Structure formats: C-alpha cells, structure tokens
Amino acid sequence: MAIGSVIGAISLSELQQYAPDQKIINPDRTLEYGNLQGSLELRERIAAMYSSPESGVTLSAENVIITPGSTQANYLVLSALAGPGDHIICQYPTYSQLFLVPKYQGAEISLWKLKRGPNGWEAGLDELKAMIKPNTKAIIINNPNNPTGAVLSSSILSSLVSLAARHPSLTLISDEVFRPLFHFPTPPPPSLLSLNHPRSAVTSSMSKAYGLPGIRIGWVASPDLAFLKRISMARLYTTLSVSQLDQAVAAVALIPSVTEKIMEKNLAICRRSIEIIGEFVERNRERVEWIPPQGAGVAIVRFKERDGGYVDDVRFAAALVERTGVGVVPVEYAFGEPEGGDEEFKGVMRIALGVEEGVLRGALGEVEGFLEGGEW
C-alpha cells in the first residue's frame, strides 16, 4: 500500500481527454527561461481561484509567484517570515516543515494543537489567543490538514482573520495543498485568501488534490505585494525560473471546466477509500479507532494493544512493513514535535486515500491478519 498522499495521478493523455480543445504542449514554444515569476496565463488562473467578488477580493497575476512544488513555496514563505527573536504559532500536527524551518532559523515556536472532541477534531481559539506575544510574526495553518484530514470551518477562519486584524505585525499563512478536497463540510470553507485579510498568504501546488506531482508546480499567493517581493528576492537564490512545459500543463489543468472533472474523479476516489477504511475500523473496533477525515487525501487510524493501551506506532509500522509489505506512516514520529512524546498521537498511523481499491482492500486485509498475529 502506498504511503504517499497524491490522489488520482493522471497522464497527459487523460488530461487531454478533459480538455479536447486545448493544445497542452505547443511544439513551437521557444524553450527560454520565460517569465521569472511564472507564466502570465498560469498566474492569472491561480489568482482567479482565490478572488471573491462578494468579499471584495480581486487578485491578479502580480499576486502570485510560481515555484517548483509547494515545498519550496513553503520554504520561501517561512524564510521571509521570521528569524531569531521572533515567535511563530503553527497548527499541529501538520507537515513538519511548517514549524521546523522557522525553528531552525532561530524563531520560537508554539504549537496550536488539534484536540479530539466528541464531534471530531477541535481547534481551541481561546488557547490560540493566549499564545500570541508581542513578537508573534505569524499564525500558520494547514487546511485541509495533513495528516488528520481535519478542516478548519468558515467560522474559525473568520475568527482567525478578526484576531489577526488586532495585531498589525502578524501574518496569516495557510498551506492549502489539499484544497479543494473536502469530503463532508457543506458548503466547504473558503480559502484564507478569500477572506480579505491584507496580511495573508497561501501556498499550494498541483501535486496532491490535482494529481499532477510529476510537473512540480507550486505557488505562493498573497494580497501583500511587499511580502511577495521579499519572497521573490529570496527565490532568485534558489530557482531562477520554473519549466515552461510544466507550467503549460498546469495552466490546462486549472481551466475551471477541467479542474471540475479532475476533482469529480479524485473526490470519488477519496469517498471510496473512506468507506473502505470505515468498514475496516468497524470490523476491528476492539483494536482500531478513527475520526473520519473531512478533507485532504489522507486519513489517520489509531491501533490498540490487546490490553487496551495504544501501540508503539514506530515499532508497529516497522513490523507491519517487514512482515506484510504494507506501509503506513507513524504520525507522532513523522509529524510530531522533534522531542516526541505526544500521547495524543501514540498509536496513530496515516493511510493514503489515493490507493487503488483492490490494493487498499488487500492491504487492510493484511493489517487485520497482522493484528491477529500477536506480538510485534
């Protein structure tokens, strides 16, 4: 079973079927550097995704910088945000880059932890307010969340914007690499950028929700042009430009009618996987528990020992792959605090939702046999 988080990776021929009237790759294109900020066509399509006339948000190509994947987009944003003497608040758990990069650059880090509640994952706003200090430079969120699949609601996002408005030196950052994969919320929450906060930025890419990790296209979008200029200057030291061919593919995938077809397919894949995992949890409810994901391309499940305590996630995952070939990601180890020891995530494993149905069913069958097999 794959442990990555890409949904429905597609071929050029499949993309062409979604856009029969488009020439994806123009053989007459001159392969020069191109626009250093990214192609105008691609940046305009990304800007349109975040524009919200009803909220007074109108972004243009100048509000977007193209990067080779969201990992670099995140790195550039985090590098521009803070350094020694600064304070960063980061949602937790999350892709560890979001709190480790500022930590290793000398910033103080506070983790805004999701908590298990009776109705799913809860994000405590009072706890967040208490974390803010005079030197707090940013609040970083990941929505939908990797690895939990939790989604911060529209009301929570609005509260974050109201909170940030009272702190002029504070920037809101949202890693939205799994947007628009929303499984249950109706309607889904808006992008952070659609809430019209002047000191905000979003990172994302074509890799996860759009199923195009092979083209290595990501971006930073923000209404704050001064902030984007700092990111653009830092980018010159890492990537002069991004492949014109990759950007051409991304531009076709982001035509609204094409995106709709991609998302219809990928959301169906996720719903099928959630149903299969739910059946697995129900069959093994004495040993397995979960909170079904509201969004993203991943889910987490928690495994128990026979005596009711939670398994050692690293030992469990290592023995599972050694004996069955099935790979899961131990969450506390891969996504937790560097010093470890977070009891909230003991025994928790991440499972990818983008796995082919037969592979997923077979892998979960192997896990059931492993649970019955005794000690590990």
From TrEMBL:
The keyword Transferase applies. PROSITE patterns: AA_TRANSFER_CLASS_1 (PS00105). Signal peptide: none annotated. The keyword Isomerase does not apply. GO terms for molecular function: pyridoxal phosphate binding; transferase activity. It holds the Pfam family Aminotran_1_2. Keywords: Pyridoxal phosphate, Transferase. Residues 29-333 form the Aminotransferase class I/classII large domain. Belongs to the class-I pyridoxal-phosphate-dependent aminotransferase family. PANTHER family: AMINOTRANSFERASE FUNCTION, HYPOTHETICAL (EUROFUNG). This is Pyridoxal phosphate-dependent transferase. It comes from Cercophora newfieldiana.
